[in-house]
Structure formats: C-alpha cells, structure tokens
Amino acid sequence: MNEDKKHMKMALRLAQFGVGMVEPNPAVGCVIVKNGKVIGKGYHKKFGEAHAEINALQDCRDKGNDPEGATMYVTLEPCCHQGKTGPCTDAILAAKIGKLFVAMSDPSEHNDGRGIRQLRATGLDVEVGLCEHYARLLNAAFIKYARTHRPYVIVKWAQGLDGKLAWKPETKKRWISNAQSRKDAHKIRRASQAIMTGVNTILTDDPALTPRPPKGKVPLRVVVDSKLRIQLGKRFMNTRRFPSMIFSTEEGVVGQEKKIDKILAKGVDLTVVPTINERCGLRTVLTELARREVRQVLVEAGPTLISSLLEEGLVDAVRIYIAPVILGNQGYVPISDAMTVVTHCKTLRDMEIKTFGGDICISGEVDTPES
Questions:
Q1: Helix axes 3-16 and 52-62, enclosed angle (nearest 10)
Q2: pLDDT digits over 351-371, tens only?
Q3: Which residues contact residue 37 at a Cβ distance below 8 angstroms, ignoring those fewer than 6 apart?
Q4: Angle formed at CA 103 by CA 47 and CA 156, multiple of 5 degrees
Q5: Cβ count within 10 A of residue 254
Q6: I need a labelling partner for 102 at 20 to 30 A (CA). Which of 13, 32, 127, 295 fits?
Q7: Cα separations (Å) of 340 from 26, 125, 226, 308, 334?
Q8: Is 23 an active-site residue?
Q9: Three state DSSP letters for 280-342
C-alpha cells in the first residue's frame, strides 16, 4: 500500500467515528501529513459542529504543528458554502495547505464540485478519487438522497440457522440475536432518520422502535398499517419523546374517525397513501419520508413488509444477524416462505461478514441483475 492510500484509509477510519452522530450530514475524516509524519487528524463529530478539516487543522495547532505546505487527505470534497459552520475551503487556503487529496466529490446541490474548483483556481494541487469506492460505501445514504431525493433503505432482520425469524409466544423468549448484535443494530438506528416496521410487528412484539440508550438524535418512527389495525395501548403509541407516523390507506381509515382522533391526540401523524395490491403503496411511503428530509430508513419488520420492499426493488442494503440456534417447532415465520413472492434474484455486492459473540452478521448492498 502506498503512503497516500494509507493516509486516506486512516481518514476513512476516522470518519466512521462520526456515524450515528452527524446525520443527515455525511461522515467525514481528515488527516494532515508533513514530511512523512501525521501532524493532525480529525473527523466530523456531531451535526452542526466543526467539520473534519477544521478539527484536523485545530489538532495541528494544538500539537504545535504548522500545516503550511502539508498534504491533507479528506474523505469528501471540502464545503465552500456558509452553513452551520464556515467554508472549509477558506480554512484550507488560510492554512496554506500544499496539496489536497479528496476521496470523492460532494454530490449535494450546494457543493457538487464547486469546492474543488475553487481550490484549484487558487493554484492548489487537488487530486480526486483516492479510495473513492470506500468513501462512497461510507456515505451511501447521503449520496443517494443527494442524487435522487429518495431515502436509502436498509432492511435488517435476525434469524436462526433454520431461517425462522421469531420465537413462538409460548416460549416467552423475545430475542434471537445476542446482546452484542442488538447493540450493533442500535448503532444503525441512531444513524437513520427513520425506523420503519409493519403493523403485524407492532401487534405481536410491541416494540418501542427507539434507539438505545435513548439519548442523542431522535429518529422518526414509522408504522405501515394499511387497515389501521394498530392498538392504542402499544408502546409505539405512547412513547411521546420520539416523533411517530402511521401510513394507512383510504380503505383502512373509513369508518374509524374516533380511532383516528385518538391517534392524532397522542401526537402521532397519520398519512393516507394509495392502495397497491391491498397494501400501502410503498413507493409513496418512501416519497413522503423523503419530503420530510429522511435520508436513511432502517426497516425492522416481519417477512411481509421485507419481501414487499424487495419485490418492488426498494431495498438498497440488507443486514442479517444469524444466531447459532435452530428454533425448530419453538419458532415460526421462516423467511424463506415470504421470499417466494420475490420474482427476481437479489445478490449482494460489497458484502461484509462480522461476528458478534456467537452471532454472524452478513451485510451488503442489494444488486438486482437484469432478468
């Protein structure tokens, strides 16, 4: 591995520390090198606070290092506009950086290459594309929303070795995956602007759909409920700190005026979408979430909603936790039964396999080849 790639990969690792804290902004890392030595590094730590380049430059100064003439490695194009913080391009020029490596350009409307052009116009040597593939994976949701104004959809589920998704109620067992896997899943909740499930999951499992520990950013909780069957006593309906939203259909809300009034009185939004195949139109659901500037949706649901999203080609990535257990007749809802409705092969690209205790986690982006 050459030195430039080594330093950019260091910046990418730094950027990952911001995941779950910076959204809807991208996660960005920055490393500054002079005479072959790292003299400063930083990352975007929290939404609304200093960007990675600013933190790296400050790190230089805190250590008594002069960044003049140094090489900077940053995982995303520096901003050139005044937002919650000042333009990073101005700070780079003021520091008299000698050369800049940028992993990828920023596709958002307020940047879209302008930062790179501005820096190059001053004579600064800027190279773009080092470790670009990894930078795109890191900020896949940010990139998709910037280009399409549609949310990035991650589908997550846990299963046993026999593919079953749940214990039978009489077993009084709640989870299939272990505590380490669940902790990892809560990191994804924290990084998402919405957590979505189907009404069957609400009725059966009574989840709160909140990230734990319950601090920091507050994602929107979403239930897809075409017949408006949700029960008012469920935890979803009574966790006031987290914004909540139900999608239903015209057929589902007819004759349920009193129930609707009670739902609205609890501070839960209710939005009616078209009926598609006797269910909520999922494309419209995602369009409505995008209107609320939801960039990433984490779907934690049963096989019906999961398979419907896959069939309609609306899933961008999956995350599957496989526990070393065979549920047998103590479990139900085999994922394979639901997947029979999916008519086209789905393969994963950029697949990653991790272990959490005894659990195996398989994740990757969904790649649907032409049939």
A1: 110
A2: 999 999 999 999 999 986 543
A3: none
A4: 60
A5: 9
A6: 295
A7: 36, 54, 22, 11, 11
A8: no
A9: ECHHHHHHHHHHCCCCEEEEECCHHHHHHHHHCCCCCEEEEEECCCCCHHHEEEEHHHHHHHC
**CA-CA distance, 126 to 240, in Å (whole number)?**
48
Cα(147)–Cα(316) distance, integer angstroms = 14
Does residue 298 contact residue 196 with C-beta atoms inside 8 Å? yes
Cα 334 from chain centroid (whole Å): 26
Which among 53, 132, 311, 312 is annotated as catalytic? Answer: 53
Q: Is the Cα dihedral 328, 333, 335, 336 positive or negative? A: positive
Going by DSSP bridges, is the β-strand pair 279-280/71-74 parallel, antiparallel, or unpaired? Answer: unpaired
Q: In 3-state terms, what secondary structure has residue 48? A: coil
User: Which residues touch 248 (CB under 8 Å, ≥6 apart)?
Assistant: 225, 226, 227, 228, 270, 271, 272, 273, 280
Q: Which of 305, 332, 310, 335 is nearest to 196 (CA)?
A: 305
pLDDT single digits (tens) 190-232: 889 999 999 999 998 899 888 877 666 789 999 999 999 999 9
Q: Write out the two tokens for 344.
A: 């086209």
Residue 274 in tokens: 């078209």
| 139-159 exposure pattern, b = at least 16 Cβ within 10 A, e = fewer | bbbbbbbbeeebbbbbbbbbb
Biggest CA–CA distance in the chain, Å, is 74
Distance (Å, whole) CA 299 – CA 186:
12
- Nearest-angstrom CA–CA distance, 78 and 29: 11
Cβ proximity of 303 and 165 under 8 Å: yes
Average pLDDT over the chain reads 91
Beta strands in 49-190 (DSSP E): 71-74, 99-102, 125-128, 152-159, 164-167
